[in-house]
Automatic annotation (TrEMBL):
Gene3D superfamilies referenced in this protein's UniProt entry, alphabetically: CRAL-TRIO lipid binding domain (3.40.525.10), GTPase Activation - p120gap, domain 1 (1.10.506.10), Pleckstrin-homology domain (PH domain)/Phosphotyrosine-binding domain (PTB) (2.30.29.30)
Highest taxon, organism lineage: Eukaryota
Classification via SUPFAM superfamilies: ARM repeat (SSF48371), GTPase activation domain, GAP (SSF48350)
Species of provenance: Sporothrix eucalyptigena
Location of the Ras-GAP domain: 125-318
Keyword Phosphoprotein: yes
UniProt cross-references to InterPro entries, sorted A to Z: ARM-type_fold, CRAL-TRIO_dom, CRAL-TRIO_dom_sf, PH-like_dom_sf, PH_NF1, Ras_GTPase, RasGAP_CS, RasGAP_dom
Listed Pfam families: CRAL_TRIO_2 (PF13716), PH_NF1 (PF21877), RasGAP (PF00616)
Listed name of the protein: 5'-3' exoribonuclease 2
Length: 1412
């Protein structure tokens, strides 16, 4: 009604009259006749002032009307109501409640008002009025007064005594409701046993008296007898209950008896009977299952019998016999006459007034009453108009329905108490009959998902009688989001068998399509929103054969429908809602086109047909595979282009206006219009501002004066900003509503006005902290409100890039001055970036926003978020980082970080370790554009160092050179530069054949950046601090399970381990190594293990001699050397070398002391070490330690890629064992008997290799013989034959893979040995014979063939040799006896031993023994 009148008077403000009114307003001249415009403004002012609660929320939008004249008029209206002294406090719930309390006082002080309403109440509203009146009077203890008044009214209006309390009216309805409230326990105590007994014997009884339904007269007589017997039991039980009847019933019966006696003295007991029998006992007898007397529904025959029993009892109560209407009941008139005295006596007894009565209602009903009264006067119009909760008519089978439209529940405009109230208000009208609940989940996004407390509160507030009537729940368009909520409801209900939502207490119907819906409802009657029904026909493209990928439910077959407004994702088969409940449904996820976008894949898959979709700003993400991937994405993109945001169905939303909202709302209206180009509007807005300050007693009131004749300049920007700033400081309570209103009116501002608007809005932003986050009790909700405002602000910045300068100068400083606000703002910027991706044009605007803030604080926060996002990738680890769920966030933050890094020396100085960490973790990952971002981040950071740091020319030149070299190649970032410039350590990933280029590039990059720390640092202390910080960042990443970047982290850790390494760090590395070995055995991916072992190799140089792990690491290295395939030999051999180098730093470990010390360190590891020796067939002990070590290294001497490393390790062993214990003689002279020497001599391929291997042992290279006679260095005459046998056997390992020169030398050596030590060759005859066969058949080298012929002649000339040429038994027995039975099985280059899980498990066990 308000809306109608307000619009009618508003329409009178036409342009011509407005112009005339403006002339008067400006000139101040008087007119004899008041203009229509002035009258309209006055009327509108009075109308709005008198109806503030409804008027403001319906009219505020006029303050932003496109028509300047109408807007001016409305501003004047607002000014008028302020100057009239309108009390805005009347808008509060308390004020409104007080008003209605006064109304209730009027209603309850005199029952004549209630009876007057009852007298004129239409039949359609009887239920609602009855419940409302009972709630009001009962809550004040006046329930009986109300009943007495309406009963007297009903008696007075009744024409004959036969009609007393029998028509449908407020009085009879009130008696029925009251009887249910007060008499449930009494009813069960009186009738439950007799009804249960009757139901148990129902098959043996027949009560039918209608001759047309009975076969014979005998049966008819028998039925009459049975009916009288059972009816007598009911009558006796009811009559005997008079002493147990509730006092409330006695009071009501007494009221009825007294009221009737005055007009119909003879009918006082029949009137009581009309209440107690017609309204109470008889309905329960006819339908005992409804009242909870029985759990099963009576059969059709039993229902007929119960109906006849109720007829008999009701006739007794009415004191009448059966007449012509039902002649077949005549035989029972004698029975009625016999029992009428008992019933009359019962009615007389219960009509006696009780001595005392209680006014207490049952607890559940009291809670219901109090709640309904407390909320009755809250504004619930927003729910009704938004169609969130409403009366939905009836189903096809006549069940009353309450509809709940989930998507229309807006938490910002309504609270859950109001939601419950709306539901209970409708349900209370259905108190006496079953009803159902229809839940429309179409387009439900879970944004305002109800918490468990809502359902618990609903059950607590709903009286049992009302809960029992909810018999059916329909859910339409079940989707994945509502499924989560529904599962929670089911789980909670399952814990309480009495819960209204327990599947045993209510029927669930899950409706998935319009055809099923039409099977239950007439769509014209259920009043579903048009949007719900229009989705069905909104289909332009339908795609089948699509599989949805779900982490929890696996693969699900779905179809995707793309329409002009919606995208529908529908499962082809029913999906289980919750295990154990037997509920299944077709899922139909429906999203508006404007809310859905393509999402990057975060589920690992090699399928090119995989794609992702996200909705609700990334809160909902789904993944699919389909051969029609491109067609689907193209259809969605095409539909989005045609889809206009303006065409999106808007929610019916009314602004809720609270008294505390009014000043902020009106303040924004006045400031916004104060900058208008129209003089009259500027003047009106100035006056509104003055009236507002005076009405609400703002401190600025004295600075403003409302006046008609004042000239406001065309550009009052300085005044507006100044006044806004002062008000923001002095009136912080206005902050939230002012800012909300600002964004409501934003779209109505002209482009010229927007910069000024932002400038006067900015001073209010700091107040968000004090106004919303003052208390911690609701901090989460407050942060959500601030975030919502920031989202609108970001939308403003993104939609209009021309505002970037004014935002940077005025708005961003207001945010970044408060760290809490900056955190919330940055969070929203990142979310916005995630929703659009780094390739969207808007991403550059978001980047400009962050750069525009540009403070050192935000730089640190962006870098910190990026680093933490990297670490969060370990929560759901993936093999490749771009497949991880956090990859999109990493890319967005990386883009921000790059932009912030330009020309920022302070950023480089404060965060250089973080930048280096990020660069090393992300280099060479992802698409080329992401790689370029990483490159630019490093280049910008080094550029800032060069231009901002105070460095000497030498260091500056080095930095410039590095920067220039880095700029040469961007796609394969830093792949080789560092190695060429700064060199590599002895242990390097790049020397391993089976490791990809990524780790090698990371190692090179880390080496470069490590050196740059020293070059760029202003001092040594800062360089050390940078490295320590970088090391801590790397460690935090390295020790998290994350295959995508963990190997990189360990690679970098090895490069950074230049300081002393403590046992705590080593412990964590060893734990990670154990894990990586298990992973390597499972998937054969060696990156992780190689990175850790290489890192360990580099750490050995800084491991103190006091470390508890020192000696035991030797056995770990030896175990790894035997475990890994040939391609990883270098990695483990370098680790062994570094361990030996570390050990050698202690003089005690050299010479003969080395073996005892190492074996002593092995003792705690014997459990695994002995088993490993057994598995490989090479045993370590004090006698053959050196031979075993050589056996483990011999396979590395075959391949040219591993030979130099193996020779270097052999040389290191030779050096360690060649020291003499004599202090005067520092080196041993004779090393000719060493197995290390023998193996080196056997496999060196050139004189240079020989010199390199022996120079540090103390052997003069000039004294060495020629390479062909190098074996002469060994004095076989003094060597034990056992030792010589082992040396020679190892020399024969992998003979077939050796170069011709080595084969030639070995054959010559065997020939010499056969002559000098025939017993040694005797054991080796069989393998030598095999070698000779191979050489003579396939060799093309003449020298080698000649050597082979000579050896063959030597063997043939000795009969002992000839006898064992075909047998390896002697050799096998000897090797087994010496502990080398697996020499040719596990120590060869080809390594025929397949490393099963046993060897990997033993190695893991060895590490476990080391670290415990």
């Amino acid at each position: 009604m308000f809306h109608t009148y307000f619009n009618r008077f508003l329409s009178l403000l036409n342009i011509e009259q407005a112009e005339l009114a403006r002339t008067d307003y400006i000139s101040g001249t008087t007119r004899d006749e008041v203009s229509t415009s002035e009258l309209s403004i006055t009327i509108l002012s009075n109308l709005l002032s008198a109806n503030l609660d409804v008027g403001l929320k319906r009219s505020l939008s006029i303050g932003y009307h496109d028509n300047v004249e109408i807007r001016t008029a409305f501003v004047r209206v607002l000014c008028n109501i302020l100057m009239q002294g309108t009390e805005f406090s009347n808008l509060s719930d308390t004020a409104v409640g007080d008003k209605y309390d006064e109304l209730i006082d009027i209603l309850t002080n005199d029952t004549s008002l209630a009876t007057a309403m009852a007298a004129v109440c239409p039949s359609s509203e009887v239920d609602e009025l009855t419940i409302s009146l009972l709630n009001i009077f009962e809550s004040r203890g006046q329930g009986y007064e109300l009943l007495e008044a309406v009963i007297k009214l009903e008696v007075e209006e009744t024409e004959s005594e036969s009609e007393l309390l029998r028509r449908t009216c407020v009085a009879t309805k009130m008696l029925s409701v009251y009887a249910k409230w007060k008499g449930a326990a009494y009813l069960k105590a009186t009738l439950q046993k007799v009804v249960e007994r009757l139901m148990m014997t129902s098959k043996d009884l027949d009560f039918e008296l209608d001759p047309t339904r009975v076969k014979s007269q005998d049966e008819l007589k028998m039925n009459a007898v049975q009916l009288q017997i059972v009816a007598k039991v009911f009558i006796d039980d009811i009559s005997a209950s008079s002493s147990k009847i509730p006092t409330a019933f006695r009071k009501i019966c007494n009221i009825i008896s007294t009221a009737v006696t005055a007009r119909f003295p003879e009918a006082k007991y029949t009137a009581v009977g009309a209440f107690i029998f017609l309204r109470f006992f008889c309905p329960a007898i006819v339908a005992p299952e409804v009242e909870g007397l029985v759990t099963t529904t009576p059969s059709k025959e039993m229902r007929r019998g119960l109906l006849l029993i109720a007829k008999i009892i009701q006739n007794l109560a009415n004191n009448v016999l059966f007449g012509a209407k039902e002649p077949y009941m005549f035989p029972l008139n004698e029975f009625l006459s016999y029992n009428i005295y008992d019933v009359t006596t019962f009615l007389r007894k219960i009509s006696v007034a009780p001595d005392a009565i209680t006014l207490n209602s049952p607890p559940s009903y009291s809670r219901f009453q109090n709640f309904m009264l407390r909320n009755a006067f809250k504004s619930n119009e927003s729910f009704v108009t938004a169609r969130a909760v409403y009366d939905g008519g009836e189903s096809k089978d006549g069940l009353s329905i309450i509809c709940v439209i989930l998507r229309n529940i807006d938490a910002d405009s309504i609270d859950y108490d109001t939601l419950i109230f709306c539901y209970l208000k409708i349900a209370s009208r259905l108190w006496h009959k079953p009803f159902g609940l229809f839940i429309d989940a179409t387009c439900y996004s879970g944004q305002n998902e109800p918490q468990d407390e809502l359902f618990q509160r609903l059950e607590a507030l709903t009286p049992t009688e009302l809960s029992r009537q909810l018999s059916r729940v329909y859910i339409y368009n079940m989707n994945s989001t509502f499924r989560k909520c529904f599962r929670r409801v089911l789980r909670a209900a399952a814990k309480n068998e009495g819960s209204v939502f327990h599947p045993d207490n209510v029927q669930y119907h899950l409706v998935s399509n319009i055809q099923d819906l039409q099977g239950h409802f007439h769509l014209s009657q259920v009043n579903l929103p048009k949007e719900t029904l229009s989705v069905v026909n909104d289909t332009r493209y339908v795609f089948q054969s699509i599989t949805r990928l779900s982490r929890s439910r696996g693969k699900i077959d779905v179809s995707i429908k793309v329409g002009s407004q919606f995208v529908q994702i529908t499962t082809t088969k029913k999906q289980e809602i919750h295990q154990g409940f037997g509920l299944n449904a077709i899922f139909n996820d429906i999203f508006r086109l404007g809310d859905i976008d393509q999402a990057p894949m975060s589920i690992q898959t090699d399928d090119d047909s995989a794609f992702g979709l996200r909705a609700e700003n990334g809160k909902i993400v789904m993944y699919f595979t389909s051969p029609a991937k491109q067609d689907i994405l193209q259809a969605i993109r095409g539909a989005k282009v045609k889809y206009s945001k303006d065409a999106r169905a808007l929610k019916s939303f009314e602004r809720l206006v609270r008294p505390q909202d009014v000043p902020g709302t009106l303040l924004n209206l006045s400031l916004a219009n104060l900058g208008s180009a129209d003089h009259t509007l500027r003047l009106s807005s100035y006056n509104l501002l003055g009236a507002l300050c005076r009405a609400f007693k703002f401190s600025m009131a004295s600075s403003l004066l409302c006046i008609k004749d004042i000239s406001v300049p065309l550009d009052p920007s300085k005044f507006i900003i100044s006044i806004s700033k002062k008000l923001a400081e002095t009136e912080p309570q206005l902050t939230t509503d002012f800012l909300n209103e600002f964004f409501v009116g934003w779209d109505s501002f002209s482009d010229e006005q927007k910069p000024l608007s932002l400038a006067y809005m900015a001073p209010w932003l700091p107040g968000l902290r004090t106004s919303l986050l003052a208390s911690d009790s609701e901090s989460d909700k407050a942060k959500d409100k601030i975030s919502a405002l920031f989202r609108k602000l970001i939308e403003v910045a993104v939609s209009d890039p021309s505002l970037s300068y004014v935002l940077e100068q005025t708005v961003w400083p207001a945010i970044y001055q408060d760290e809490t606000l900056l955190d919330l703002f940055l969070e929203e910027v990142v979310k916005n970036g995630l929703s659009i991706g780094i390739h969207d044009d808007q991403a550059e605007i978001l980047t400009s926003i962050v750069t525009g803030i540009g403070t050192i604080t935000i730089r640190g926060k962006v870098i910190s978020r990026l680093r933490k996002a990297l670490n969060r990738s370990s929560l759901r680890p993936t093999k490749h980082l771009p497949d991880n769920a956090v990859w999109a966030e990493i890319c967005v933050l990386l883009q921000f970080c790059v932009s912030l890094s330009f020309d920022s020396g302070i950023q480089s100085q404060l965060y250089l370790p973080e930048i280096f960490h990020i660069v090393t973790m992300l280099a060479n990952i992802g698409t080329p554009d992401v790689r370029f971002l990483v490159h630019r981040l490093l280049a910008n950071s080094l550029h800032a160092v060069c231009t901002s740091f105070t460095l000497d020319e030498a260091r500056l030149s080095k930095l410039r050179g590095a920067l220039e070299s880095l700029s040469e190649g961007k796609s394969d970032l830093f792949s080789s530069y560092a190695a060429a410039t700064f060199g590599r350590d002895g242990a390097s990933i790049s020397t391993n054949q089976e490791v990809g280029p990524s780790l090698a590039a990371t190692e090179s990059l880390a080496a470069l950046l490590f050196e740059l720390c020293s070059v760029a640092a202003p001092s040594v202390d800062i360089a050390n601090a940078w490295r320590a910080r970088w090391m801590s960042l790397v460690a935090s990443t390295a020790f998290q399970n994350n295959p995508a970047i963990q190997p990189r982290a360990f690679t970098v850790m090895g490069c950074l381990a230049r300081e002393e390494v403590d046992d705590d760090l080593l412990y964590q590395v060893l734990v990670a190594l154990r894990t990586s070995i298990g992973r390597f055995s499972d998937d054969n991916n060696s990156d992780m293990m190689v990175a850790i072992v290489t890192s360990l190799s580099k750490m050995m140089a800084k491991l103190p001699s006091a470390s508890r792990y020192g000696y035991q690491l030797f056995w770990l290295a030896m175990s790894l050397l035997r475990l890994v395939p040939p391609g990883l030999f270098n990695c483990t051999a370098q680790f062994l070398e570094s361990v030996l180098t570390n050990i050698s730093s202690s003089g005690e470990m050299r010479g003969e002391r080395m073996v005892p010390f190492l074996l002593q360190g092995r003792a705690p590891l014997e459990d695994a070490a002995l088993a490993l020796d057994e598995a490989y067939g090479v045993h370590f002990n004090s006698e053959n330690f050196h031979f075993a070590a050589c056996a483990c290294l011999v396979r590395g001497l075959t391949d040219t890629m591993t030979k130099s490393t193996a020779l270097r390790v052999l040389s290191t062993f030779l050096e360690l064992t060649s020291w003499a214990p004599n202090e005067k003689e520092t080196r041993a002279v004779d090393v000719s008997g060493s197995p290390y020497m023998a193996l080196i001599l056997a496999r060196v391929g050139s004189a240079e290799e020989l010199k390199d291997s022996l120079w540090h042992v103390g052997i003069n290279p000039a004294s060495l013989p020629s390479l062909s006679r190098v074996h002469a260095i060994q004095d076989v005459s003094v060597m034990k034959e056992k030792d010589l046998l082992l040396n020679t056997a190892m020399e024969l390992v992998d003979f077939q893979y050796l170069e011709d020169a080595l084969q030639n030398r070995t054959l010559s050596w065997l020939n010499d040995l056969a002559k000098e030590k025939p017993n040694v060759i005797l054991h080796l005859c069989a393998p030598i014979a095999s070698i000779l066969d191979e050489v003579l058949l396939h060799c093309q080298n003449s020298s080698t063939l000649e050597a082979a012929h000579e050896l063959l002649q030597t063997l043939s000339s000795n009969s002992k040799f000839s006898q064992v040429l075909d047998s390896t038994d002697m050799l096998k027995a000897s090797l087994d006896d010496m502990g080398f039975g697996g020499l040719w099985r596990s120590c060869t280059f080809s390594n025929s031993l397949e490393q099963d899980g046993h060897c990997f498990g033993l190695t893991e066990r060895l590490i476990e023994l080391i670290i415990i």
